[in-house]
Amino acid sequence: MGVTIDRVGAVPLEAPLSEPFGYAQEWVTERSALLVRIEASDGTVGWGECWGPIAGTRGTVERLLGPEIEGEDPLDVERLSETLYDVGRAAYQSVVPLPALSGIDVALWDLTGKLLDVPVSTLLGGARRSAVRAYATGHYFKHGCDLDEQYERIAAEAIENAAALDAVKLKTGLDLIGYGPREDVELVRRVREAVGDEATLLVDANYAYDAPTAREVGRALESLDVHWFEEPVPPEDLDGYAHLREALDVRVAGGECHAPYEFDRLFERGCLDVAQPDVCNVGGLTAARRVATTASAHGVPVVPHVWGTPVAIAASLHLISTLPGHPWLEFDRSANPLREAVAADPLTADDDGRVPVPEGPGLGIELDEEAIARYRVE
């Protein structure tokens, strides 16, 4: 008998922030991650990452899904992923625990690549590019600042990020601190003025608006040469997405909150100009690759949502490297000690604003076990 899956474990990490930051839905006071560690019978280890809070997901990985694949052939990734989807659906009935499944799926791809001594991109069909252009995510709301200071600090951050990557994404949804759409548009105007006309500017509302308000904001964004308007309305408002895409000239983007079957509905109804599955939330690389195939059939480009540790970034890079067209990497520049510490060699952008796709087996990154031990919580 060949190599089998010996153990599936979850590794919870937390890092407090010296200064909280906010977006439309909440304040972020710490960065956390739930990594998945799968060890094969020969000692080879694969790593994955789950989206969202540690609570609940850890138990799902360790007590529900993980035991189902122990003793199985790790090379049979897609069959195992489908089996776990069925197990999750049977257990939860109304939902499938996609974040937990995602972390296991990514870890299986990493493990398989290491066992076969090939990069994950090769397993996914082959890389089209060795590096991916990046845009800077960040520019969150600042804690304890009045409106003018918000504008000034966010614009200053955008100037720095535009100089490094020439493309920045900022947040709207200042209702979090007591303002509204008019102030949101003014924030975008000030950032556009700060970074200049040549920089690519993207806007993410994190579903701050209802459809009529999103239409009003979107029309204002058109005059500011915004490249896309991300998550303008709540994820379940497919009517809103469809109407906005029809009404606005600015591109409508979304998908980080959507399950694979929901992407089918989004594409069928013409809701998106840009699809943004997150490999740590949609069901892993297996599901994300299938979403990308469906998106391509509908003529919709894919730019994955990425907001995690180097495990999430590396997995996303491998997927993006296989996609047609000219896809971007969402490159988080906000405070995250885990992003900087967890990998022995953090992933960085070059002078041209491109992030190399790791070349080694599996995800191609080596994790720092001492850093993991330092940030691990029980």
Summarize the structure.
This protein has 378 residues and is an alpha/beta fold.
CATH topology of the largest domain: TIM Barrel
Helix content: 40-55%
Gyration radius, rounded: 20 Å
CATH architecture of the largest domain: Alpha-Beta Barrel
Structural class: alpha/beta
Instruction: Kindly estimate the percentage of residues that lie in beta strands according to DSSP.
Output: 15-25%
Q: Describe the biggest sheet?
A: 8 strands, mixed
What's the domain count? Answer: 2
Order of helices and strands: EEEHHHHEEHEHEHEHEHEHHEHEH
Tally of alpha and pi helices: 13
Query: Runs with pLDDT <50, length 5+?
Result: none
User: How many strand elements?
Assistant: 12
Mean pLDDT across all residues, rounded? 97
Using the coordinates above, name the CATH class of the largest domain.
Answer: Alpha Beta
State the separation between the terminal residues, measured CA to CA.
Answer: 35 Å
